[in-house]
Amino acid sequence: MTRSPLEETVLAEIRPTQAERDHVCGIAQKLLAAIAASGKAQGMVVGSIARHTWVRGDRDLDVFMLFDPGLSREALESEGLGLARKIAGTFADSFHEKYAEHPYISARIDDVDVDIVPCYAVESAAHIQSAVDRTPFHTRYITEKINGLIDDVLLLKRFTKSGGIYGSDQMTEGFSGYLCELLILHYGGFIPLLTSASEWKPQTLIDLENHTAKEFPEPLVMIDPVDPNRNVAAAVSLDRMVAFVELARGYLEEPSKHFFSLPDQHTITREGLASLIADRGTTLYAITFPTPPYIEEVIVPQLKRSVIAIAEHLERNGFVVHHTHYMMQPERCIFLLELLVADLPKIRTHVGPPVWNRVNAEKFREKHIVSSLPGPYIRNGHYEMEVFREYTNARALLSSEGLLQVSLGKHVRQSLTQGWIVDEGPYCWHEEFAPFIAAFFRRGSPLIRVRRKILDL
After folding, report:
1. In this structure, are 120 and 226 located in the same domain?
2. Residue 115: how many CB atoms within 10 A of its CB?
């Protein structure tokens, strides 16, 4: 398919240069030689660098060490980490352990981010013993089929990254690099993909090998060609899928370079936040607390569940919540909550049982027969009465120990028990969270952001 001049211009900007390829591949070859020299494992470069589908500047090198499947999991971790540490120490000044399903080593070698990952050299994806064992099969599958379509993958990766929907991490809930490659393979190119995606609906199913082994509940289902029991698109949320649909329609209707420009990084000052809140007439609260000592994949879902529970806690107590979000930083996490109503009258209505529920109705009546407030009285067949609120101010509620009684994530609750801080209004501003706070008030769909760029708004 003939590309537009716009797409050719973008490709010229995002294809890795030959010097960059030589540099990254040179580091890869040194690591593979070191693994081979150990005599303990077979080295393999996986991921986008192995498949030549990496975008200029994205220098993330994944090197796998394939060990004998007969090793126990304990031996794999022990020997694998030991070898990875030795190799990383040879080429990098420093390195550190990371933890997914099992530990691996991450290092910075020259200007390349390198992950050295132990796995099993299984004979097929059907015999994997850990999730990472599947990755070499992904690399082999894509490498065999992607020739002629690499530029289309580069366009799609930049397109989704520009739209803020690239990445299968818990914060993004978007499109992984492997998913982008499979989509291009299935549809045969960037424009054919966008044309089809513009008509996607929830529960779209794509199965390159026609070997689906079960049903999946996610809105977008891409059956892994090397594992019929896995949905490659499992991380893609409904909102991210629909955002891609919107972007596809927008680009087909009015192509622009702005569909490939990286998202603008906005920030906000304390003074700017104060002015913004005053204009909106809302009340902003920030809850900050120490980041639990676990990886993002564990903590972010707990942050999401926790902020929903806190919002429900506020609503149950009469406070009207407008918008909430969360962010995890290395040292601290934040819950940001914007309320339409943050102060309430002292009294509220307490609804009791229906009068025809004789036992409970009589208990309710006798319990509250002495009260300085109206009631119990009958309304719509129920006993009702007025009672004093426990909390008339949202900040007081958020600062109380009752916050620990809502349905928080396990590790979030553990961290909050160490103490949390509730800030209000412009005092919610913290330098480390300034871009997050700015984004909180700049909500807009990906296509809206592109359109605003086109109109220079």
Report:
1. no
2. 19
Tokens representing 49? 């660098």
Same domain, 377 and 408: no
Question: Alpha helix (H) ranges present in 322-357?
Answer: none
Q: Is 421 left (phi over 0), alpha (psi -120 to 50) or beta?
A: beta
Band (pLDDT 50/70/90 cuts) for residue 178 is: very high
The tens digit of pLDDT for each residue in 389-419 reads 999 999 999 999 999 999 999 999 999 999 9
Token reading at 280 = 């909106």
Contact 242, 201 (CB under 8 A): no
Residue 321 sits in a domain whose CATH number is 3.30.70.590
Half-sphere exposure of 224 (CA within 13 A, CB side): 21
Q: What is the pLDDT of residue 337?
A: 98
**Opening angle at CA 27, ends 184 and 62, nearest 5:** 45
- Report the alpha-carbon distance of residue 284 to residue 124 in Å, rounded: 53
Domain that holds residue 279: 270-344+392-441
- Give the type of residue at 383: Y
Give the chain's domain count.
4
Q: Which helix (H) or strand (E) holds 50?
A: helix 47-51
* 1 is a domain residue: no
Q: What is the pLDDT of residue 125?
A: 81
Determine contact, residues 120/79, Cβ cutoff 8 Å.
Answer: no
Residues 6+ apart with CB under 8 A from 32: 43, 44, 45, 63
For residue 48, which of 113, 143, 114, 166 has the smallest C-alpha distance? 143
Mean pLDDT score, 105-132 = 90
Is the torsion defined by CA of 250, 251, 255, 257 positive or negative? positive
Rg (CA), the chain: 27
